[in-house]
Structure formats: C-alpha cells, structure tokens
Prior knowledge:
The complex is a heterodimer. By secondary structure, chain A is an alpha+beta fold. Chain A has two helices and two strands; from the N terminus they run ββαα. In chain B, about 50% of the residues lie in helices and about 15% in strands. In chain B, a hairpin with a 2-residue loop joins strand 1 and strand 2 (about 155-160). The interface between A and B is large, with 42 and 46 residues.
Amino acid sequence: MLTKPLELKALGAVSSARVVVRVDPEDIELSDRFIQFVKDNADAFGNRTPDEILAEVRHQYVLTPDKEDLGQ
Amino acid sequence: MDNPLLLDSGSVWDFFKAIGDALAKSVAGNVFLAAIVLVVLIVFVAAVASKQQVLYVSAAVTGGVAIILVGALSFGASLPIWYAAVLLVVALVAVAGAIFALIRGRAKPKPLDQAVISAVTTALSEAADEVAGFLGVARHSVRANVFAPAGANLRIVPALTVRMNDPRELTLEIPVGKGVVGTAWKLCRPIPARFDPGALHGGKPWLLLPPAQAAKVNRDLRWVVAMPTPPGKPTFAWAIDGLEDATDDKVDATVPKLAKWGYALDAYLSGVKLT
C-alpha cells in the first residue's frame, strides 16, 4: 500500500495521518466474516460470489485516479 | 447543389438529409474514417457500460450521429450495408444505454428504512470486529459510523453507527476539507490517523475542525480510519475508530481490510437518502 503523510503543522491533536494513494490488489483479501455476510445477504450483492466481489473491490482501488493535491 | 450543406430550403428535414448525406459520403469513401467512427462508437458504448457518467451525454450525441449516418442510406448514399448494420447496432446500444443511465441517474432517492439500517449496522459491526481482532484490541473499543454529505459538511448518520453511545457525538458535523473524515472526503481517499491523547484533552484543534464540533468528539479516541466510498467518487464516508491505541503501521494496514466492507456498505447505501 502506498501512502503519503499529511502536513503535521495543520494536524493539531492528530499525531500522525497518511493519505492512501494506492492499495495493492493482493493486500485486499476476503475474511470469514465477510464471506458469511455476503452469503447472508446474497440479494443485496446481485448474487455475486465473494470471489467476484473481491475482484470488483480490487479493481475499484487499483483504478482510483491519482490526484495532484494530496498534500495539505 | 454542389455542396450538400448549402440548403435552398430552410426545412429541418432538408438540413437533416444534407448532413446525413455528407457524412455518409465521407465515411463511405474513406475506410480509415469509417473505422474511426466505429471505434469511437464502441468506446462510448464501453463508457456507458462501465458507468463513466460524464460520457453518457457524449454517447447519446455520438449515437445520434451514427443514426443520421444510417438514415442517410435511404437518401441514396453508398455506405456498405454491412457497415451500416454494425453501425446501427452499436448506435442503438449507445443511445439505449445513455438514456437508461440518464433516467437511472435521476431516480428518486430511496428512504433509509429499517432493513437498510439493520444490514448496514451489521456490516459496520462486522468490520469493526474484524479490525479489533487484527489490532488485538477489545471489541468494545472499536466503533464505526457513516457520514453523509450535507451541503459543505459531512454529517454523521445517527442510525448508522456502532458502539457510539454519546448523543452529543451523534450530532457531529465536519466541514469538507477539515478533520480526518473531511480531508479524506475532499481527497476522495482513505486516511488512517492517530491522535495525541494529551493534545485531545488539552483542547488543541483537530486538524482544523471547528471547536464546537471538535468538542463533541470522544476525548479517548486514539485512532481513526476514514473511508470515502466508493473510492474516487464517494457518495458517503464511513469511519472506524478506536479507544485503545495501536501503531501507525497496524492502523494503516486496516485499510485493505476495510475496502471490501466499503463495497458492502455501498451495496446498501447507493441511492439512499441519508440526510
């Protein structure tokens, strides 16, 4: 995962903060809790399987466009 | 008339006929141009299919041009019939897709009913528990909440919270661009952050949060992860926060774990009126 620190001078009570620039697809994984949630609520997910959803989530985060103004 | 675009009649029909004939002749006489038109149309269909909303109108306009081209066949233009047939199919898909997307985009927001509240709070609770297990902190110390855009602010949705028991905190409103959640929203990206316990109790400003709003936040907060969702084009934000400390690395590493839960929340909250 790629992150970029926020300017500390503006943070006040925030001791550290980072903007997530990119999430590596392999870092996004299913969990037993999530698989069960998808099974229990299949209609809400258009009957997609957990693996199909995982592929979509990975795609969403990989394709998030870069922004110029990630600094503060 | 040498130039088909020079009309001797002001009728719309003649104008349409002239444009169609001119376009058709240009395409029929130039294989490269014909291929370009087809490729552009296919790209617009793909744009509609992939929900790139900014291109819906372009898709509709381009589809309209294609229909004019096809229509020009009836005026005697020499477009190959196979090309016209392919063009027609692509154009109809583009126009139908664009109209469907535009109608859907104007659909009336759905109310936040009990079924949605129940499903979303279950998802929030599961996400919080997953993070608690990963960080090795007590479950009851990890909380979750959803923020909805309300003008220039993000407002917490009281019904969509987990383990947040202070009524005052449920009235929290964060200006866009301020605080952790407001900054994450502005940048359309997740932000993990940790807090300085001494500074929290000492009344320091919270990342430029207005004092009246900062005063509502739990003073024992140690970290928060703000997740604008969907990423890149958020319609709501949600956050997981904790009252037991964890390291920067550990808090950062919760983001990929939360990504899938953001997808689940969006499945329920997309198109729902939250404020």
